[in-house]
Specification:
438 residues; alpha+beta; 8-stranded mixed beta sheet; 5-stranded mixed beta barrel; 12 helices; 16 strands; 26% strand; elongated; binds aspartyl-adenosine-5'-monophosphate
């Protein structure tokens, strides 16, 4: 039999039921013991009359209960308007302690205001019992399911690519090495090559939601060394606008769904208003953006910024998107090829047929049309000094490969921007330069 959810108890009045949950609270009074049980869906009061002789065993068990233990309780569910908690109580006949918690918890997860994030992460299983923290992952799960749904409705299929790879591919500096029997292997920093191989395999429309690894020693509020990437790739596109269109549709659907289901809860727990974007999202070339940022806010892009937005540039791009388009989102296009991956298609001016998507000042996606012409691709790879290691990849394009494009959307980035929280909170289990536990 399925466990009864505490949100569905009203279907069981005057029936004998069995419920399970954590002990949220215990109050031992002169004549009565109140226990509050909690499950994922709500809370339930359990009332034990001490005077009742039949209850002596229950009183003994209840007197020795510790908070946060888990129990299974059998009893009759009664409606009782005097009970503040949902006007109902369980009158138990049997209590079984299924797991006893030690008295002293290392953190008080009910009030985390003064607990350091790293202490919380050390005790993440308790930290996540906190309602707000628990909600992060319900929201994330529903959002990702909705993104998947948009793709399934368009006949995309999910694939699974290897994370152990034989050659450091996109850029050698960012990959983790692992000992692989007598040789070295690497942890995939993106499924990029394999999603393109799926196009050469005639799959046409694919996606993957999976782990990627980056050996970047960045300690920021938005970088992790392992994170989850939502990767999409599809064939027979006419330009990278098709890729932006698809991503826009996914995000708009996803946020409409999340606002409907969690909008009030997100406001209550995170003080964030979920805004469903209007389409199309603004699309601006990097060069044009810089002209605007200079004339509007006096920002002058120099050095590295000419190739990519700095974090200050991203913040200003967001401000510009809001001021000019009343949009939380902005696509930036027209990046120079120099500092970008070799596999993107370029236009006649040497700019990429690709984009970054910035949401509320944080990059959440890179996407592009890919270079699918073998000779051009080979030349672009060679320009970046890539040769032997990617021979297997170049082979994908030798025997016919449709024009295609796609994008990589960081699931953790999406979550942290949506709820305006740091990356350490947005990941179920965070991995960073100084953290490999729990
Ligand atoms: P890129 O390297 O831009 O592109 O990564 C895609 C998206 O992944 C997220 N992201 C990160 N999230 C958390 N911690 C990190 N260290 C981190 N680095 C990146 C961001 C980013 O936009 N192969 C291309 C994608 C493609 O063209 O399809 C790629 O990996 O949200």
């Amino acid at each position: 039999m399925e466990k009864i959810k505490f949100s569905e108890l009203e279907n069981y009045f005057d029936k004998e039921i069995e419920v399970s949950g954590f002990i949220e609270n215990i109050r031992v009074l002169q004549y009565v013991i109140f226990i509050v049980l909690k499950d994922k869906y709500g809370k339930l009061q359990v009332t034990i009359e001490k005077e009742d002789e039949n209850n002596s065993k229950l009183v003994e068990i209840a007197s020795n209960l510790t908070l946060d233990s888990t129990v299974k309780i059998k009893g009759i569910l009664k409606q009782n308007p005097k009970v503040k908690l949902n006007g109902m109580e369980l009158i138990p006949s049997c209590i079984e302690v299924t797991s006893k918690s030690l008295e002293e918890l290392p953190i008080n997860y009910k009030d985390l205001a003064n607990t350091l994030i790293d202490t919380r992460l050390d005790n993440r299983m308790l930290d996540l019992r906190n309602e707000r923290n628990n909600y992060i992952f319900r929201i994330q799960s529903d959002l990702i399911r909705n993104l998947r749904d948009t793709l399934y409705n368009k006949d995309f299929m999910e694939i699974h690519t290897p994370k152990l790879i034989g050659a450091a591919s996109e850029s050698g500096s960012e990959v983790f090495e692992v000992k692989y029997f007598e040789r070295l292997a690497y942890l995939a920093q993106s499924p990029q090559f394999y999603k393109q191989m799926a196009m050469a395999s005639g799959f046409e429309k694919i996606f993957e939601v999976g782990p990627v690894f980056r050996a970047e020693n960045s300690n920021t509020n938005r970088h992790a060394t392992e994170f989850t990437s939502f990767d999409v790739e599809f064939s027979y596109i006419n330009s990278f606008s098709d890729v932006m269109d698809l991503e826009e549709e996914m995000i708009t659907n996803g946020l409409a769904f999340i606002k409907e289901k969690y909008g009030d809860k997100i406001k209550e727990l995170f003080n964030v208003d979920v805004v469903v974007p209007t389409r199309p999202f603004p699309r601006v070339k990097l060069n044009d953006l810089y002209k605007e940022l200079e004339s509007l806010y006096g920002y002058k892009a120099e050095g590295e910024d000419l190739y990519d937005l700095s974090s200050e540039g991203e913040k200003l791009a967001a401000r510009y998107a809001m001021d000019k388009y009343n949009s939380e989102f902005i696509f930036i296009t027209g990046y120079p090829a120099e500092k970008r991956a070799f596999y993107h298609m370029r236009d006649d001016d040497g700019l990429l047929n690709g984009y970054d998507l910035i949401w509320k000042g944080t990059e959440i996606t890179t996407g592009a049309q890919r270079e699918h012409r073998y000779e051009v691709l080979k030349r672009q790879a060679e320009e970046k000094g890539l040769k032997e290691d990617i021979k297997f990849y170049l082979d994908f394009f030798k025997y016919g490969c449709p024009p295609h494009g796609g994008f990589g959307l960081g699931v953790d980035r999406l979550t942290l921007v949506l709820l305006e929280i740091p990356v350490k909170e947005a990941m179920f289990i965070f991995r960073g330069p100084n953290r490999l536990n729990p």
